Amino acid sequence: MTTDNKNKQRQSIPQFSLYGEELKPANTEFVHIELIATRSRLYNWHIGHHTHSGLFQVLFLLSGHVNAEIDGAIWACDSPVAITIHPSVIHSFTFSQEAQGFVLTIDQHVIFSNDSRHQDIGYNDIFASLFVQPLAIDLDATPTILERLEALLKQLLVESAWPLAGHTLMLEWLSRSALLLLVRTHADRASADRNGRHDFELFSRYRSLVETHYKEQLQVNDYATLLHVPPSRLNRLCLKLSGKSAFDITQQRLILEACRKLTYLSSNIASIAYELGFQDPAYFSRLFKRHTGFTPKAFREKSTTSNITIAH
Description:
Blueprint: H1 3-12, E1 31-35, H2 36-40, E2 46-50, E3 55-63, E4 65-70, E5 73-78, E6 81-85, E7 91-95, E8 100-107, H3 108-111, H4 123-126, H5 128-131, E9 135-138, H6 143-161, H7 167-195, H8 197-213, H9 220-227, H10 231-242, H11 246-264, H12 269-275, H13 281-292, H14 296-303
Antiparallel strand pairs: 1-8, 2-7, 3-6, 3-8, 4-5, 4-7, 6-9
Helix pairs in contact: 6-7, 7-8, 8-10, 11-14, 12-13
């Protein structure tokens, strides 16, 4: 097909705000979420070719199957998967009738914020990796991320149905949070491709075990036994993929939980130490100060009057 014919074909493709609806007014911010079934059922589970002028879209398929045509290429995707769509990309979807999930549509002004507060952390660039080209991001290997994504998307759905004070900000924060989880997942996958999928899966299993057992304060040898690998290999793998030793990862998870409890709970410091598996509250206090620079008491006092960044 010649370039002129391709351009004519593109010009004949309808542009929608949401499929089947007129374009939104220019220069307005926009976050919209709906269930896949809400619109697809009306069209016999087939969404025809279209684009979204100025609007980015992410399809979160949590169950079922979709055949997606993305700029002429056919993607056959099983759940759970997230498909990202740039405003200029011609796309269509044909869903299985049991398909469930969400369609998130976001205005370009929400994604590429002009807020100067975020410029120092590359805020305007952080989402670019999701939309430079269309992506199908497999969510099956990251059950924790999938669970958090589903929770955020459900919150978005509730917020969109019952607008209250700060409605616009809440929609933006929740949608950006969901996109950030996708950015992490995509980055982890890219790292896995570079470092070897088996290593990445082993590292993910280790992080999952730490999340489950950190209060028991298992030793690295214990985790290595559970993973059926030598402790030395586990430690090298953690250093390779995270820049932290296996032991440091367990300690940082403990300290993160301590920070949360000191910030959000009124329990005394000794009780928090016991909850986190420390038999000696004084040792807990020394360890906490070594990692954060604050005693638990000082951290709690400062957290009530200022924002303390908790390292993850």
